[in-house]
Amino acid sequence: MRISSQKALGLLKRSLTPNRPYHAQWLLTRRCNYRCRSCTIWHEQQRVEEISTDEVKRGLDVFRKLGVIEVVFSGGNPLLREDIGEILDYASRHFVTTVYDNGSLVAKKIDALRSVDFVAISLDTLDRKKLDYIKGVPEAWETAVDAIETLQKEGISVVISPTISRLNQHEIVDFTRYFIKKRIPVLYCLYSYDFPMKDRLFGIGEKTDELELVDRAAMAKVCDELIELKKKQQGIFITAKVLNVLKEFFASGQRTWTCEALRGFFIVDHLGRVAGCHLRQPAASIFELSDQWNSERFENLRKEYSRCEKCTYLCYIVYSLHASVLGNLEIMRDQWRNVMLLRNLKAETLSN
Ligand code: SF4
Ligand code: SF4
User: Fold this and answer.
1) Is the CB of 310 under 6 A from ligand 2?
2) pTM, whole model, 2 decimals?
């Protein structure tokens, strides 16, 4: 994480400002070179229309004005965009910036990744065959591991991002131990799927029995073990607060969080349309967002979303739980701890 004092000051100032979003996720493209079992994005490869580089930059200016702290670029695979280096460079000046890759494009796009705070590589298991099966392409495991090594060698901060599903839930604690021993942080996703919703922004996941988390007691135990591990080790990129809420959810079925879509976080698609989450209808274009943010219409949408209990996408839970000024600071403190871990790692890599 290369954080200039100007950027740090800007982030801190925005963190302390109430009533503004912490997190924006921009799905820059619908194109993808993988065929993951749970994902529907690659089914629509004919849709290649995308917002231009200048429009993305203008959108990022709007984020800044609104007070956004953290921007995550995903897709599809955002590294398929020719202009990804320019976008990441622009975003990284002002936001904690993360970009996702399945590992396949890191080597080709290494220079584009130098400015970014975190490159998240999606890797679900240490079992090679299982990963190839989940990702739907051969040699997905070797490709991801090569990408991780390349990023480490180049001194670029890498985090591993497994999606916890029925196929890997029993190994996720050992998987975490394996990577934190290598001093690579782990940032989790939870297998979820879209419910039918008219006029949603876009679809991501479909219901797949073999992935569905049906052993809830085992998941509560996973949360418990991660909570204990987190007390002793750096590198678990999820706050204790979120782990405790998830544990409660899996143990008793109770949702103890309130959705903060369009308040604590929002989503932007490849065309620059903004929604509270991908399952909700577009609420504005990125260029209308500043004008709309404090409108009555947005307030009404927020009220509606705060009553919604339809999804368990982990990123939405995280940014709902940490939507307050205090919550923002908790995430930042957690991130800083992990940043120190990465810094030490980089120093060791350079001295070897
Ligand atoms: S989950 Fe990600 S990497 Fe896999 S097909 Fe979908 S967009 Fe591509
Ligand atoms: S709970 Fe929130 S994030 Fe999930 S579908 Fe409802 S509004 Fe969207």
Assistant:
1) yes
2) 0.91
